[in-house]
Specification:
Elements: E1 16-21, H1 22-35, E2 48-52, H2 54-58, H3 62-72, E3 76-79, H4 82-90, E4 97-99, H5 108-113, E5 116-120, H6 125-135, E6 143-148, H7 163-171, E7 176-182, H8 199-216, E8 223-225, H9 229-234, E9 242-243, H10 260-268, E10 275-287, E11 292-293, E12 299-300, E13 305-310, E14 327-330, E15 333-338, E16 346-349, E17 361-368, E18 371-373, H11 375-381, H12 386-391, E19 399-402
Parallel strand pairs: 1-19, 2-3, 2-9, 3-4, 4-5, 5-6, 6-7, 7-8
Antiparallel strand pairs: 1-10, 10-13, 10-17, 11-12, 13-16, 14-15, 14-17, 15-16, 17-18
Length: 403
């Protein structure tokens, strides 16, 4: 372990790392839970929170953030696949885990072994899960699952017209237990006057009609859940019995249409960025006017320039499209990224920042003392979403968990 200039992190090796603030994560979780349980509602039971930790916890480390969130009181966890669920379970998580994209044939035994609740997205999956439970000699109604209904995203889930088929097949399954029914919104962040803005309302209508049909067939839907991050912040009518925060857990509201709604959402539900991606300056050089920097000389100095080389590139999670477009924080000031972002290094122009030395820290996004370069602002500048940047932080980048 080593201690070097201007860093909270102490480790040996290539100087690129991500600092993950567990207090910020806990703050966001508690803020969400309080927001969806307003005292004036006087519910008999508080609304549950299913924390989305898929995609390696949006790049933050799925098992690690799940442990912090379970301690904070998360009721459920959401992962993409069986393998992700097993990783989270092996970290010691005891709360229920929902496998959002269901399971592939042959995975049933591992689901049962690790107590994972799959989403059922096709009626034929019920028989496979029932057979696996019977082979293991499990008790009656001991294997939980959630039913996903496709209400218009046309991605995963049974169609509302297949509700009768589901009910018939489910009636044959003595080992299975329906824990919940859910759907996923395609455009819950869109409020502008457009056909897309109407999609969420139509999805709600289809979902509730399907629920009523299920109940009419004698099927108790269990936990009803619809709301993703944008719906949590802006559509209280969709909160149901449980909400599924994703990117807002990690400190960022999704983009909205119209844009001014973002400021409104941030005011109603204040969040703290959880991850700060950092790299040290490993080289400084003076570049004369007319000289190119990096591959294909995509940046040519127009003045005598001081160029710093960071120990991180797109192989670490600095989006390649930030070349000649993005900036990083150095000494609390913005330093433009110049030239093409390489796999292992990135060049920034620090001409206007006095006192820069080898070993100084550049913050790609996140907090730098009193200064913040939000990941959502970086994402907007290159036409992508915040989750794209967060999930892009690769496995070779150490995560330092700050408590």
């Amino acid at each position: 372990m080593t201690t070097t200039r201007n860093s909270k992190a102490h480790f040996s090796g290539r100087p690129v790392w991500a600092e993950v603030s567990l207090p910020a994560l806990t703050h966001n979780f508690k803020a969400i839970r309080a927001y969806v349980n307003p005292p004036e509602e006087k519910r008999k039971a508080p609304r549950k929170v299913l924390s989305i930790v898929k995609g390696n916890g949006y790049g933050h480390g799925g098992p690690q953030v799940a442990k912090a969130l379970e301690k904070a009181g998360s009721d459920w966890f959401g992962v993409t696949c069986t393998a992700e669920g097993i990783e989270v379970r092996k970290a010691g998580i005891r709360k229920p885990i929902l496998v959002l994209t269901s399971f592939w044939p042959g995975e049933e035994s591992r689901l049962l072994q690790h107590r994972l609740s799959p989403a059922i997205i096709r009626c034929d999956q019920l028989a496979a899960l029932e057979r696996a439970a019977a082979r293991r000699g499990l008790p009656k109604a001991s294997v939980g699952f959630h039913l996903k209904i496709d209400t218009g995203m046309n991605r995963l889930g049974i169609s509302p017209g297949d509700v009768e088929c589901f009910a018939r097949q489910f009636a044959k399954c003595r080992h299975l237990r329906l824990e919940g029914v859910f759907t996923h919104f395609a455009s819950s962040e869109v409020f502008a006057n457009s056909p897309v803005a109407e999609q969420t309302r139509r999805q709600e209508e289809r979902f509730h009609a399907a629920l009523e049909r299920l109940r009419g067939l004698g099927v108790d839907p269990g936990i009803v859940h619809l709301a993703n991050s944008a719906a949590i912040a802006s559509r209280p009518e969709t909160w149901g019995d449980m909400v599924r925060p994703g990117v807002i857990l990690y400190g960022y509201h999704p983009g909205y249409e119209p844009l001014e709604m973002r400021a409104e959402a941030e005011k109603k539900l204040p969040l703290k960025p959880v991850m700060s991606l950092r790299a040290r300056i490993i080289s400084l050089r003076n570049v004369p006017p007319g000289s190119g920097v990096g591959y294909n000389s995509k940046f040519v100095a127009e003045r005598p320039s001081k160029i710093a080389v960071l120990a991180a590139g797109y192989g670490d999670g600095i989006h390649r499209s930030l070349g000649n477009r993005g900036s990083v924080l150095v000494h609390g000031k913005l330093a433009p990224i110049v030239g093409i972002v390489s796999m292992d290094v990135t060049m920034v122009d620090v001409t206007e920042i006095p006192g820069v030395q080898i070993g100084d820290i550049a913050t790609v996004y996140g907090t730098d003392g009193e200064h913040t370069l939000p990941a959502n602002a970086v994402a907007r500048s290159i036409g992508t979403v915040t989750s794209d940047l967060l999930c892009a932080v690769t496995q070779r980048v150490p995560r330092i968990y700050l408590s």
